[in-house]
Amino acid sequence: MELQDVLRQKFGYESFRPGQQEVITELLAGRDTVAIFPTGTGKSLCYQLPAYMVDGAVIIISPLVALMEDQVANLRKHKEKRVVAINSFLSRQEKELALSTLAHYKFIFLSPEMVMQQHVRQLVQQLPIAFFVVDEAHCISEWGFDFRPDYLRLKELFSVLERAPVLALTATANEKVVEDITTYLHMRKPHIERQSIDRPNISYRVMHMDNEWVKTEWIIQRLATTIGPGVIYVASRKRADELAAMIRETGIPTASYHGGKEQDERSIIQQQFVQGELEWICATNAFGMGIHKDDIRQVIHEHLPATPSAYIQEVGRAGRDGEKAAATLLYSKRDIQKVKFIVYEDLPDEQQTLYYHSLLQSETKSQLAAEQAGLSEVASRLLDYYLEQSDVENVIRQIHQIYQVKEKQIAEMECYVKSDSCLREKLVQFFGENTSPAEADCCSNCQNLDDDWLIKSETSTEQVVEALQWRERLHQLLG
Amino acid sequence: MSFDSILLTIFQRLHGERSAQGVYHILRGKRSGQTLQDVEYYQVKSYYALLPQLTAGEFQQALERMQADGLIYINELVYVTAKGQMATGSEMWRFNGWNYRGREREFARRLALLVQTLSNLRSSETTFMPIQKELPTQQFVKGFLRNQSSSMISLSTSLRKELEHVLTNSSLTDLQRMIVSSRLTGYRLTASTWEQMTDRVNLPVKTLQLYYIEALHIMLDFIQQRPNLPLLTELAAGCKVDTYLTQSAERTRKLFERGYSVEQIASLRNLKLSTIEDHFIEMASNMDGFPYKDFITEEQIDVVWRHVEQLQTKRLRLLKQQCPELSYFQLRLIIMIGRSES
Ligand SMILES: Nc1ncnc2c1ncn2[C@@H]1O[C@H](COP(=O)(O)OP(=O)(O)OP(=O)(O)O)[C@@H](O)[C@H]1O
Ligand SMILES: [Mg+2]
Ligand SMILES: [Zn+2]
Question: Can you give the residue ranges of the Helicase C-terminal domain (chain A) (predicted)?
Fold first, then answer.
């Protein structure tokens, strides 16, 4: 069958989006490939489609459970039953069950931690494999809150001589990150397919404010006058709950979403948002990857993200339907300090590193040692990984490098919020691209924003939906 | 009414004879001899394993708040103050924690996924995001649907009729009917979050969640007693505890059945005598017709219970002072079995 036919029959799309066909062709020719496409432009299809053109299983390594679940559900939507996701959230029995029936599946999603477990890895390597996929591959060269040493360990999986080709997917990768990806994944003469990171339908705004209180006022006012659906990114779980409650008071259906909520609640909120029952979500960075809502019109940041790549990812939730969308970053002077504090908290300094190391040398258990050295969980995980690889002086040097990378990323964000030239241009420059300001609806610095489309029309005022009586509700659900 | 009132109720039943930790174990459903014995002694079986997810932090917070409010007083053991007794309220909880031990939540998950599936299928919508992500739940519902012979539309109506019957006839309150139906998702109709329900009825989240658990217990009890609810009965399969004994106690029971004595079992299994005694206590609390007369006489039971009445306590140390000739094991057994019929 031709690629085109599979696209139409299996997925119901008329044509490929830019870059998709190239990636699929290279992959099918057995070549390692890196696909760098902006958020929401169809990276998943680059492995979903070719899967049907070759024998063997597709092994997808994915960093977040939510992301995995979403991809699984998405495949099932396209009538694919041979899908499984194995991650640390499964109980032992569930995991055993999944592993013992591995050969039945066409799409196998694994967290990096899982695939690096000896027996899992053996099981995987015994399978006939069509190709590997590493989703959100920029995680390989990103350190921080979700530092995943096992992403680096993946090289053990790929350094073997005879192996199926590898496809790495990411939305945000500059030259340095692409280099990290290709080295760590042991890619051989990879084909690199890059689409511009710029999303022309998104317009950018940076607003300077005196303090947090002014930000809150602005948000309340903004939501009263402009349209959703939208997402407000905030710095903490507590703040998400608090802000959502304040917005709800004004009569706009809003919920908070973060890792501290039960799974059931998160499913319900996600569903309500997708169905349009909720208009706004106040979220931590736990919300994002894996949420499919095509018509998000606004993304507002109440805090400063730690990296341009995180910012691009979060903003990238908006306007997936190709229609106009607005991104707004609210900035106040102390935000730089705040984000630095959060980021550096997870990085051990020289003294902590030396102390931790000496404790481990004297046979102190790693958890206790971490506690005594005052290390966060992330920090000790990071040290464990590096100390396993080399001596302590080297580790200090490496941590110092990470520190510099982090510092540079925060400096870039600072540069972004303080810039008085085109924001779009600035943002893509961090990823080694050039673009020129958009003719219209570009950014707050280009001063060509026309926000009429954002204004709420009188008729769209919230209608309070009366809660159904229980009996009616049952009838409506089940007939 | 609230989490606090549940804690107060339990503390009161234990009237100053147990530490807070003991209550924590009861709520989380710890399967140790001590906890199992406690729930029996103090008649708090219905609260057993009510909150398997309760964290030590949450529990500690509640204790501190109640102490600050002067409802309880902790001096190693927990005492309920006069103010606390007033605050307990007269509401009767109708939990059945002993029988379900957290498994009622699995029933709720299955129900939610089944309703969502049927609701979508009857509206010819075959693609939707499952509201339940747990693999075992998904597999259960898949298996359930595969076993049905009728069409999805008639299945959907039958399920609605069964649900309507249960909600109408099972002595739930109106609030509980609202909660149960609001937690169901379907075609173009999504469940409410706890926060949204809180806004609607003006009660704290935790309270609503407790009412929900109680409602699930009541529904499950009801379903079990009715033969005419085939779909819900199947959906409730395995949610009620079928063997009340821990695995280890079960092994002890088998040996005892084959005629071994307590001491022999201990040495055969290479376990401490006290552990085996714990197993017997567990058996006594869980099995009908446990042959307690192998260990104690009717007279001994009478004597001990007279002391219990007189001293107004079930604390073993005090009872042992009165009846030095009895072992602690015998005393525990007597308390566990209760007053003799005569
Ligand atoms: N060729 C195509 N034609 C039309 N729609 C497409 C095509 N390819 C993908 N899509 C749709 O585009 C949407 C986004 O796709 P996908 O989730 O793969 O994005 P992504 O690039 O992985 O984004 P992210 O970086 O956020 O993970 C999906 O709804 C998908 O069905
Ligand atoms: Mg993706
Ligand atoms: Zn611009």
Answer: 219-362
Return the CATH number at B15. 1.10.10
CB contact burial A462-477 (16+ within 10 A = b; e otherwise): eeeeebbebeebbebb
Domain range enclosing A295: 202-338+411-478
Contact between chains at B188 and A275 (C-beta distance less than 8 A): yes
pTM: 0.79
CA dihedral over B228, B230, B235, B241, signed as positive or negative: positive
Check A263 against B133: CB less than 8 A apart: yes
Q: Please indicate, yes or no, whether residues B54 and B127 belong to a single structural domain of this protein.
A: no
ipTM reported for the complex, 2 dp: 0.79
**Alpha carbon distance A11, A25 (integer Å):** 17
Interface contact flag, A73 B129, Cβ < 8 Å: yes
Closest protein CA for atom 6 of ligand 1: A42
Convert the pLDDT of each residue in B59-97 to its tens digit: 999 999 999 999 999 988 999 999 998 888 777 789 999
Mean pLDDT of A254-282: 92
Residues B131 and B210 in one domain: yes
Domains identified in chain B, total number: 3
B160 and B76 belong to one structural domain: no
Domain membership flag for residue A396? no
Pair type for strands A33-36 and A298-301: unpaired
| Chain A, chain B: beta-carbon pairs less than 8 Å apart | 95
Judgement on whether residues B28 and B112 belong to the same structural domain of the protein: no
Is A343 inside a domain boundary?
no
Mark whether A39 and A84 lie in a shared domain: yes
Q: Which of B195, B197, B200, B208 is the best residue to mutate to test the A interface, defined by the most A CB atoms within 10 Å of its own CB?
A: B195
Q: What is the C-alpha to C-alpha distance for residues A74 and A67, in angstroms, rounded to an integer?
A: 10
Same domain membership, residue A126 and residue A75: yes
A387-404: pLDDT as tens digits: 888 899 999 998 888 888
- What is the total count of domains within chain A? 3
Would residue B161 count as lying in a domain?
yes
**Residue A11 CB less than 6 A away from ligand 1:** no
Q: For residue range A63-105, what is the model confidence (pLDDT) as tens digits? A: 877 778 778 888 887 888 899 999 877 778 888 888 999 999 9
What are A404-447's pLDDT values in tens digits?
888 999 999 999 999 999 999 999 999 888 888 888 999 999 99
Residue where one domain finishes, among candidates A194, A219, A240:
A194
* Residue to substitute in A45, A109, A292, A317 for testing ligand 1 pocket (most ligand atoms within 8 angstroms of CB): A45
pLDDT at residue A316 is higher than 80: yes
Q: Is residue A398 part of a domain?
A: no
B82 touching chain A per CB within 8 A: no
Given an 8 Å threshold on Cβ–Cβ distance, is A268 in contact with B180?
Answer: no
Structure tokens at A353: 């590193």
Strand order in the sheet with A298-301: A202-208, A325-331, A298-301, A230-233, A280-283, A254-257
A272, A363: one domain: no
Q: Is there a domain that residue A403 lies in?
A: no
Q: Is the Cβ of B184 closer than 8 Å to some Cβ of chain A?
A: yes
A85 and A151 inside one domain: yes
Which of B109, B130, B163 is the closest to A474 by Cβ? B163
DSSP characters for B246-301? -HHHHHHHHHHHTT--HHHHHHHHT--HHHHHHHHHHHHHH-TT--GGGT--HHHH
Percent of chain A with pLDDT over 70: 95
A430 CA to centre of ligand 3 in angstroms? 15
Asked if residue A170 and residue A216 are part of one domain, the reply reads: no
Q: Are residues B131 and B230 in the same domain?
A: yes
Q: B88 is in which domain, residue-wise?
A: 3-93
Same domain, B271 and B224: no
Any ligand 1 atom below 6 A from CB of A13: yes
